[in-house]
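TL;DR need structure tokens for one chain.
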Amino acid sequence: MNARERILGAIARQPLDRIPTDFWATPEVLVNLRRHFGENVDLFSLLHLDGFKSADPIYTGPALPVMPKGESIDWWGIRNKNIDYGTGIYSEVAVPSLAQARTLDDLLAYPWPRAEWFDFSAMPAILREARKTHAVQCGYMAPFYYHNLLRGIEQSLLDPLEDPEFATVLIGKISDFFLAYHRKMFEVCEGLIDVTQVTDDLGSQTGPLISPALYREFYKPHHKKMIQLAREFGIRVMHHDDGSCLVFLPDLVEMGIDILNPVQWNCPGMDTRELKAEFGAKLCFHGGVENQKILPFGTPEDVRAEVRHCIDTLASDNTGYIVCSCHAMQPITPIENILALYDEAHRYGKR
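>> reply
TL;DR here they are.
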């Protein structure tokens, strides 16, 4: 099997020659690997990676303001600033663009992004080439997460409680853009995209960020439309959800997600054996390899044991799992631990 066949086979929970792999890491990790092995190293071959390939449209909308060094602004109007945490740099929201909005008029007057601001025409040629060897993943729809970004996390959690009508209109505007943008992408790239993301960070380290009732009232209807849009074009759906998201999984599975990432098993309710037993007949799992203690601070043998545990539980039927860190590997992750992860996945995944 080649990388494409292996990834798509795992998603479809079909028999495999070995459990496939993917790679999630911060830019600093890639720099560290290339510094160690050389700029021209083929990381896919070195690490026995399967993974996905992708492409994006070109932004052609209104000119974005020029920002000071280390800052940026996107087409949503969200201002970001690079924050150096000592071990790595993350782009964090500095100014949520709708933080001061209070009324429906404020929302209606806001310059919401439009699908017409993007040129999708170069994507098909790129994706046709990518599909020769790899599965293709394009698109990202996340109404809850973008509610967080546009309003600030605290205010976005308060909106549905303080002003349900305001929250309904705001989330609807976010969803309208995602649906129009992705419909255009899917039309231009019809038959070329295997997987898209309908995703949201509904979970935290200790439990859900919102109640199932609030999710079902304010966000689930939009997730349902997004999943239905993907289905209309024969595209599989990955759902990324950090932390403890168990309470939302019955709804998400019922709506038709195909892949669950990142399977942060050290959070409440996310036991890998139990997830596989309850949802393994309908889901492919992606991630799982613990990224807060084991990958950055464990030994290579700790990492190998963790990979074996994930394969034994999430691929207990020898399919339905893609090995990967349970989030982006951080710059403090030792090179030898990264090598141990992918070497063990390659070896043990053939069992």
